[in-house]
Amino acid sequence: MKKEAIITLPNPHLRQKSQRVHVVSDETRQLIKDMTDASIDWENSRPHEISAALAAVQIDRLERVVIVRADFEDKDNQEFIPLINPEIVKYEGEITYDYEGCLSVKDFYGKVPRYSKIRVKAINIDGDEIRIKANGFLARVLQHEIDHCNGIVFVDHIRDDHQAFYRLNDEGELDPLDYERYVKDNADLWD
Questions:
Q1: Neighbours of 64 (CB within 10 A)
Q2: Which residues of 67-81 are buried (b: 16+ CB within 10 A; e: fewer)?
Q3: Are the C-beta atoms of 129 and 121 separated by less than 8 Å?
Q4: Considering the chain, what is the average pLDDT of its residues?
Q5: How far is residue 3's CA from residue 44's CA, in Å, rounded to a whole number?
Q6: Residue 101: which of 45, 144, 163, 159 has the closest Cα?
Q7: Three-state secondary structure of the chain
């Protein structure tokens, strides 16, 4: 599967809740492969970005499946860990603000509030329940992807913050955007 399969706002499917997976089947495994292929193809088209994770809804499949990169630091390691029916069972720590991007929100980043620690339960590709204690960047990534399963996109967490939106420049640095102009010019992102 190629990066063109990744849907972007204002596609209304990104605002729908995904359905639970009842049986981990060959179809589920193929979905995970398709998600991984689309993520890697997207990443290969971007000199300064990695694909940290992807939810099934982002390739227009309303199933509660996410993949999370095994190593955020090594772009050459293209292994992803699948999580089926991921659910946050506990929020911990403090709320911190940091930059987030999304393969389904073209070319923009935002400064998003998230809990610094969470606990997640999910099913792995073998159908076994797993539990994860996550903090820092991994906690942020998991909250972002589980939001996708619930029809929420990161821009939904940003309100009235005049230093909230950014664009990646040619050097790979984030440049702030004018909040009012961004919101006005991109009103369809909140529809």
A1: 23
A2: bbbeeeeeeeebebb
A3: yes
A4: 92
A5: 9
A6: 144
A7: CCHHHCCCCCCHHHHCCCECCCCCCHHHHHHHHHHHHHHHHHHHCCCCCCCCEEEHHHHCCCECEEEEECCCCCCCCCCEEEEEEEEEEEEEEEEEEEEEEECCEEEEEEEEEEEEEEEEEEECCCCCEEEEEEEHHHHHHHHHHHHHHCCCCHHHHCCCCCCCEEEECCCCCEEECCHHHHHHHCHHHHC
Catalytic residue among 4, 79, 145, 173: 145
Could you confirm whether 43 is annotated as catalytic? no
Model confidence over 58-109: pLDDT tens digits?
999 999 999 999 999 998 999 999 999 999 999 999 999 999 999 999 888 9
Please tell me the pTM assigned to this model. Answer: 0.91
Instruction: For residue range 2-60, list pLDDT tens digits in order.
Output: 999 999 999 999 999 999 999 999 999 999 999 999 999 999 998 888 999 999 999 99
Give the fold, CATH level 3, of 3-96+115-152. Peptide Deformylase (3.90.45)
Domain ranges for the chain, please list them. 3-96+115-152
Pairwise CA distance, residues 30 & 179, whole Å? 40
